[in-house]
Amino acid sequence: MEATVLKLYEYLNQDKIDKIPVYQRNYSWQKENCEQLFNDILNAGEKESVEFHFIGSIIVIVDGGIDGNKNIIIDGQQRVTTAVLFLKALYDVTTNDFIKDEFIKRLIFKITENGRVPKLILNRDDNFVLEKLLNSKELSDNDKTSKIFKNYDYFKNRIENSEDKKLKIGFEKLRVVGIRLNIQENPQLIFESLNSTGLQLNSTDLIRNFLLMNKSAKEQDRLYLDYWYKIEQNITNEYMEDFFKSFLVVKLLTDVSVKKIYEKFKEYKLKNSFESEIILKELLFYSKLYVKLLFTTLEKDKDIKKKIYDIEALNQKVIYPTLLECYANLEREELNKDNFLAILNFFENYLIRTIVCEDSSKGLNKFNIILIKKLNENSDKFNNIKKALTQSNSKNRMKSDKDFISSLKYKRIYKNKTLKNGNILLYKIESFLSKKEIVSKDTLSIEHIMPQTLTSKWKTLLSNDKDVYDELLHTLGNLTLTGYNPELSNKIFSDKKRILEESNLSLNRYFTVINSWNKEEIEKRADSLIKTILKIYPEPEELKTLDEKVDSFYLSQRDESSITGTKPISFEFFDKEVNTKSWRELYRQIVELIYDEYQELFIKHIERDTFNSNKNLLSTNIEDMGKLNCTKIDNFYLNTNLSAMQILSNLSTIFEVLEIDEDELLVYLDN
């Protein structure tokens, strides 16, 4: 490794082309980054006392990674690109021929046998815009949405109100540390080290780098164009991390946190000794399927498209790993279309019941692993999934009709944002009842029959019974779909009825035979709607005969009714399975495991008293614990004189302070 301090303009003046390798992220500097650089240049140019201004490092591979006479930049590409954009903006604004021809042209263009070419080559999409910009070609409206153009335009506007000679002087004072690497010095490790100390790259950038960096420039370009570019086009940057998370859950059969995506990906590649191209092929295959979960219009089969759309509308991305592997089974012809649709139908039923009962779906992060294992267990894939969702005694088990019906009737469905205020359920009912193509969902809105603001006439109609309003206003029985929402407003029921009778919606035919609206009528309509819902989402036979006792739960799913009177027998935490005899022993064991894993951070929080924000949880001083029963762990005392729910609540506090996912802890009960 060779490091020297360089003047930036001297670095750019080299007779070499700087190439940004395909594994690097796209140009991403924001306006505030450009503003800082411009102000630094201007300040250096205006003040003689400023001898130089250091802006960072530029690291290039100069041996083995050089293609012809190109520098391969592995760090510093953002500042080099921004410097070139500044120079181009100065070139376009200044009328000083010396600055234009003798200074800037030498820095941004290389003279070849075929004429001048830009000295900087970016990644595919960025370079398309940069090349047009540097060669003063016309830019499209789409080109002008890129950061390349926006930052150039920012500099241009600032330069128009500044003195060009001062800006030239300021630019000449910019300094960088230039570092030259030999390919044998393992640029990959150096790159990771830089990322840990500088502007953090996301896991997608690191994975791309990990797969491509140690290849020759020619091989990098081939793998990028044949695979990675297509993956990016399929998924788009916004969803790449979610995609990799789902992919790794499928492949590793373990839960993967966003923070550990890159670490787990490295583990997957190295553990299996896969060549980069093998993994890229697999990633491309799965990306073509994952994009159909994100954008259902890309699915060509209309039956599958409709069912995926219905599931996607529920916004339960937690089950995407399982859906992704189901899609992969279909694509590999290990699952036929009928069974695939049966699985999708079952998932929709499962999710609707979970959402209506307002049960947490967080535990599904781990449950995905069981589902994927069951899916690939044998050829009877649909029944494998069905059994996993209905015969488990965990909190993730499918909700029975008993819970479902009660929740449908009395929960405040209008307040359920996941159900889009009840719109999803009501539209499903309308689709089921209607024999023809129904009105677009976008043209319909939710209407409260008993209005949200009661007029004096409505109060009289309800016999001034405020309980009816408080208890039933937002429940399913009081809601309908309509295209006349502003017209209905707070009208009395008889007026609303006349308008609803003119509706084309099958859902509203119910009101033709109803002459009043009160508690009894709201509950009767709820019962009528529930009958239809149970035809759409029938209870599986397997649920009707199962013992409803819960024998396991994640910390995120704790509730008093399932835990009171129980005893834990074991738990899974940090990939360990530990036997236990009581809630107090479980508490001590888990805190000890956390302390061992996070000792330095744990001690800091004890010193800051973070754990005791609203309760006497632990202390390094036994006197602070008063007469409480305590257990000593290393140099602190833990209050263990607690009920099961208090223990779980305290664990939740510790998890929150240390940013541990509550789904890391799975408790097994002795029933």
Task: Give an overview in words.
The termini are far apart. A hairpin with a 2-residue loop joins β5 and β6. α9 runs parallel beside α12. This protein is an alpha+beta fold and 671 residues long. It is built from 30 helices and 17 strands. The protein has a six-stranded mixed sheet with strand order 1-8-3-4-2-7. It has a four-stranded antiparallel sheet with strand order 11-17-12-13, with helices on one face. A three-stranded antiparallel sheet has the order 14-16-15, with no helix packed on it. The chain folds into four domains: 200 residues, no CATH class; 187 residues, no CATH class; 133 residues, no CATH class; 118 residues, no CATH class.
Count of separate DSSP helical elements: 30
Integer average pLDDT? 87
Which percent bin holds the helix content? 40-55%
Assembly type: single chain
Q: Which stretches of 5+ consecutive residues score pLDDT under 50?
A: 63-68
Span of the ends, CA to CA: 64 Å
β content, as a range? Answer: 5-15%
* Strand arrangement in the largest pleated sheet: 1-8-3-4-2-7
Give the class from helix and strand content and strand pairing: alpha+beta
What count of structural domains? 4
Task: Tell me the total number of β-strands.
Answer: 17
Largest sheet: 6 strands, mixed
Any idea what the shape is?
A: globular
